[in-house]
Amino acid sequence: MADQDDPAPKPGKESQNAAREARLAAALRENLKRRKAQMRGRDAGGSEKPVKRD
User: Fold this and answer.
1) What is the pLDDT of residues 16-32, one digit of tens each?
2) What is the pTM of this model?
């Protein structure tokens, strides 16, 4: 990305980047929890069907 090459980021960019990183981290945690729950359901013989996403 071009933002990383810029030696002096704009004042609002740092807070936007931090907020984006926090959102991504939260999304990754939720995704991991969901996937673990799916695997536990499959291991227990559950009939949970995978969700098809486009």
Assistant:
1) 999 999 999 999 999 99
2) 0.54
